[in-house]
Amino acid sequence: MKVLVRITDNNTIIDCTGDVDLYSSPQLREKLLESMRGANSRVLVNMSGVSYIDSSGIATLVEGLQLSQKTRTRFGLFGLRSNARSVLELARLNKVFAIFDNEQEALEKISSTEPFSGLA
Asked: Is residue 119 part of a domain?
């Protein structure tokens, strides 16, 4: 898996490509935690390149969500493929995370002052 971090305005975007599983989720976890503790108040995870996610990957995202609530960081996911979306739906986590269809929508809504689902 590849994990790249980019910063636009006050937003940190974490681009993931490949499988998020037991072996690769620590890499995503590290980038998520760094981003949550950084200066930016908004963190988005681009899942459009994720072909597979297992329970350890889901646990990593949940940990990121929990930290976002503690640090008052706005946190969301976008670009989920059908298989990753299905996993979140089966666990009913689609009701907990702020999930957006694409980067443009995510940036527009995360920058809004209005609260949205799943965020502190």
From this structure: no
- Give the DSSP per-residue string, 101-116: SSHHHHHHHHHSSS--
Q: Can you tell me the distance from the alpha carbon of 17 to that of 36, in angstroms, rounded to the nearest whole number? A: 20
- Of the candidates 22, 24, 3, 25, the residue with the CA atom closest to the CA atom of residue 14: 3
At 90 the pLDDT is 93
Q: How many other CB atoms sit within 10 Å of the CB of residue 115? A: 10
Average pLDDT, the chain: 90
- Spatial neighbors of 84 by CB under 8 A, at least 6 apart, are 47, 50, 52, 53
- Amino acid 108 reads E
CATH number assigned to the domain comprising residue 78 = 3.30.750.24
Q: How many structural domains is the chain composed of?
A: 1
Q: What is the pTM of this model?
A: 0.90
